[in-house]
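User: Could you go from structure to sequence for me? I need the amino acid at each position, not a summary. Structure tokens:
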């Protein structure tokens, strides 16, 4: 068998979101092949599996981990419980969300949403950021002001699709020494598939913390 799966671990300092493939399944035990992104996982870690084509999430434990002959890692994962994906709140959490953005005019934002090419200088912040289904908060090294409109290219996971979104800067905070500031952005345009992906990521993180 070969079924796509997404693994989320919130055991360490930063949540890990890893794409993999289920190569064998025996009731509540799964053999999963993952890329090198799984190097941060260790035996005994609590993780959440989201399996392609199945509803809900599985709370699991990493039973074993070994180098795979074809590269990456071979994991043995044991399921503990399944939880439906419609009985959770959606708080603001932390995760790695690769984005790039730039300030834009209303006209440019409309062109961006319509799928037209938009040039200019794009910025890529540290993907480890605070997020919710309503917006993002990330460190920023450019000059932005409250009320600025941003066009944003958003990805959830290393191999997920790219979504064209827009957001409005609603607040600016002091940041660490590595950035000029931290900005809170509220989504103004967010495709339904992107909303669903952020909702699912939120549920995965919540499950992993139970």
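Assistant: Here is the amino acid at each position, in order:
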């Amino acid at each position: 068998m070969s079924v796509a799966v997404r693994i989320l671990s919130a055991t360490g300092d930063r949540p890990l979101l890893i794409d993999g493939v289920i190569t064998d399944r025996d009731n509540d035990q799964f053999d999963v092949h993952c890329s090198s992104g799984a190097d941060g996982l260790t035996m005994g870690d609590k993780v959440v599996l989201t399996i392609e084509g199945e509803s809900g999430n599985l709370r699991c434990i990493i039973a074993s981990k070994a180098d795979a002959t074809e590269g990456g890692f071979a994991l043995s994962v044991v399921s503990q419980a399944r939880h439906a994906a419609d009985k959770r709140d959606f708080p603001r959490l932390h995760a790695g969300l690769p984005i790039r953005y730039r300030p834009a005019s209303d006209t440019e934002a409309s062109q961006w949403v319509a799928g037209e090419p938009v040039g200019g200088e794009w910025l890529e912040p540290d993907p480890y950021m605070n997020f919710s289904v309503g917006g993002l908060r990330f460190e920023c090294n450019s000059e932005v002001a409250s009320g600025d409109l941003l066009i944003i290219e958003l990805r959830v996971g290393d191999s997920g699709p790219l979504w064209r979104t827009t957001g409005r800067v609603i607040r600016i905070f002091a940041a660490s020494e590595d950035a000029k500031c931290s900005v809170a952005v509220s989504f103004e345009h967010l495709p339904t598939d992107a909303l669903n992906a952020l909702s699912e990521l939120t549920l995965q993180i919540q499950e992993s913390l139970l």
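One structural detail worth keeping in mind: The radius of gyration is 18 Å.
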